[in-house]
Amino acid sequence: MPNKTHDSDVAFIKALAEVLNDNELTELAVKRDYGENDSLNVKVSRRQETVAQVSAPAPAVTQAAPAAAPAAPAAAPAESAPVEDPASHPGAVTSPMVGTVYMQAEPGAPSFVSVGDKVAEGDTLLIVEAMKTMNHIPAPRGGTVKRILVEDGAAVEYGAPLMIIE
């Protein structure tokens, strides 16, 4: 029964699109197994705009057959990088994983760093929780924290800029 329609699939896909938007993610892929030879593969993604965001782009939803491989992401056209792109800054500290950012060791504790703080190489800047594991993110070099680009409790993707150290 691989062609069987599940009434909950539409609601499930809409819920995934909401998770994508609420957590500022660019892509989310899920496989839902219903039984032998009956599953749903869903990949929800949205385009990244490099211009100022006036409104959030609508998510695109695709549904693939169980035996089909996920669709490859479309290559982004070559566009000029914005002048203030934090990820291209030479002092950018990027996330080594997908997870949730915590600016302090526990609720109510002081933040590891604030804008203007001097840090040494190896000092903990923040924590990224991934799969219930708290990963301390160390300073890759010494310097002064110029900008913090994430908020406490925010979801981050691999390679997302976290802060600028100069």
Task: Walk me through this protein's architecture.
Residues 55-85 have a biased composition (Low complexity). Pfam families: Biotin_lipoyl. This protein is a component of the acetyl coenzyme A carboxylase complex; first, biotin carboxylase catalyzes the carboxylation of the carrier protein and then the transcarboxylase transfers the carboxyl group to form malonyl-CoA. InterPro entries: AcCoA_biotinCC, Biotin_BS, Biotin_Carboxyl_Carrier/Decarb, Biotin_lipoyl, Single_hybrid_motif. The structure is a single chain. This protein starts with 7 loop residues before the first helix and ends with a strand. The chain folds into two domains: 8-64, no CATH class; 86-165, OB fold (Dihydrolipoamide Acetyltransferase, E2P). By secondary structure, it is mainly β. It has one helix spanning 8-22; strands at 27-35, 38-45, 60-64, 92-94, 99-102, 118-119, 124-130, 133-138, 143-148, 155-156, 161-165. The model is unreliable at 50-78 (pLDDT under 50). The chain contains one helix and eleven strands; from the N terminus they run αβββββββββββ.
